[in-house]
Amino acid sequence: MEGEIAGEELGYRYIYIPSRTGKAPTLLLLHGMGGSERDLIPLAKTVSPESPVLSLRGKVVENGLRRFFRRIGEGVYDVEDLHYRSNEIADLIDIASRKHGFDRARIIAIGYSNGANMSVAIALIRPGALYGAVLIRPLFPLDIGRERLAGTPILILAGRRDRIAPPQESIKLAERLKRKGASVELHILDAGHEITDRDIELIRGWIERVGYDRSREGSMDIAGLSGII
Amino acid sequence: MKRDRILGIHHVTAISRDPQENLNFYTGVLGLRLVKISVNQDDPTAYHFFYADEQGTPGTDITFFIYPNASKGVAGTGQVKEVSLNIPSESIDYWLQRLQRYGVRFRGPRRTDDGLAIELEDPDGLNLRLIGRSDIGDIARPWEKGPVPREHAIRGLFGVLISVDSCRHSGWFLEEVLGFRKIYEGPGRHRYVADDGGPSKIIDVECTDTSPGSIGYGSVHHVAWRVKDPETQIMYREKLEKLGFYVTPVIDRKWFRSIYFREPGYVLYEIATDGPGFQIDEPPEELGTKLVLPEWLEDMREAIERSLPKINIPNPENWR
Q1: Which domain holds residue A15?
Q2: Which of A204, A220, A221, A226 best probes binding to B when mutated, by most B CB atoms within 10 angstroms?
Q3: Domains delineated in chain B
Q4: Least crowded by CB within 10 Å, which of A197, A218, B290, B300?
Q5: Domain-embedded: residue A226
Q6: Residue A113 annotated as catalytic
């Protein structure tokens, strides 16, 4: 694709797509297990066409399939590796922002499945590394990270019929993140584990509301009629 | 769609001050069909107007008690704060023009997660929203003779927004007592759906620590939820009583049967049966043309008619 730059830092292959305007947040894309750094680029271009994109390829390989962190078994994550990779990626963002010139302070992770889990870990282990995060079908039953998340906006998209990442887990995750101070929005969609058009619609709306403004209030537009014309 | 659960919104009832302005706005400007003219069965000196689609389908119905001497309602917790209606997504421009043409106070269109929305006020200041949707095919049958062209007509209710002091308590009630499902949770606001969700099955709960509101013109009096049959209604009634909630006995409202109760945040809910329907006492072509009274008020008809303000039912031709 035109404008794409292939790069590698700290062992992570990535694609960087610059943007001509300066106002949009940068999107950090983290694919699902078995995927690649190409997977989420069309979604990113749809939800926020003006945003620079930094899309990573997972380094951990399990049975030939790429992931972002090691797991010991299904749903059993290698917590030490989780910490290691979180720090790696947070450092990578620092390096890449200097190398490619995007705004370090406003980078939003969009993660799908395993990528969503990685995004949660980064948010908890290196708070401040991310401006916000979109978690598509996460499964993160761990309670890690001791620091508070000062109003970090997080969008969680769960699927009612998702057998891989059950929606109840997302409800619990939302609670945990809120207790740590994050500003969480959770949608339970009429979907399974796959990404749907509705996910894309919601992500687009959320980035428009949250990605450009540092207000820490709940940014859901509550339709009061003050100041009606 | 299961029989034994709440199927969605049955109707919303609000308070209005001026019967003629109310008629002109809801049938004239908004193009809803006046399917019943009656009186408040608990207070026969007050008109009760029912606006809906062609045949009064549950989920399309907004009703008003007319109280000319009421003071203005005060917004606050314990109330329905806003009522949203479905319009076809291609009809946003039509409605912007129409509202402008009739001098309606509105704002928008605003992009929301539900689609493009126009926020407006009715003559009493009731907060309404028109939401452009593409999934409302056969939810409602537009009024054939209405002033709004069929392809642009309002298609029933989308949902309601209630304002309460505790999302947790009001949410618990919706989920555990009424069987709704939570599908969205954000700061200070949750969304619950009945049945399979979608337009006419939505309630948004906004929790805030503003002071309680008070009812008056421009306020919503209650929101009614649909059940298929009296047996399901009785099941809910018994469940509410067993949990210690006060609930009225089943009241025969002629066109449907009702029970009323307050949820933990003080919002007044009704559960209404889908039947018998508005056509039980008027043929379809004549819905909403004459004052209809319940049997037990018929022998006082003359006195009631004399005490009610004079009204002219708007002619759709004048509102095209």
Answers
A1: 5-210
A2: A220
A3: 8-319 (3.10.180.10)
A4: A197
A5: no
A6: yes
CATH code at position A94: 3.40.50.1820
Element (H, E) at B180: none
Residue A158 gets which letter from DSSP?
Answer: E
d(CA B8, CA B259): 15
- C-beta separation of B171 from B190 below 8 A: yes
pLDDT of residue A3: 85
Looking at the 3D structure of chain A, how many domains does it have?
Answer: 1
Which stretches within A33-144 are classed as H helix? 41-47, 79-100, 114-125
Mean pLDDT (10-residue bins), chain B, 320 residues: 84 97 98 96 90 96 94 95 97 97 95 95 97 89 95 97 96 96 94 96 95 94 97 96 94 95 95 96 95 88 89 94
Contact B184 A174 (CB under 8 A): no
Q: Cα A162–A168–A170 angle (5° rounding)?
A: 85
pLDDT of res. A224:
22
Q: Is the pLDDT of residue A1 over 70?
A: no
pLDDT at position B213 is 92
Q: How many CB pairs under 8 A join A and B?
A: 64
**Inside any domain, residue A90:** yes
Chain B, window 78-107: residues with a beta carbon less than 8 angstroms from a chain A beta carbon: 82, 105-107
- Residue A84 in domain: yes
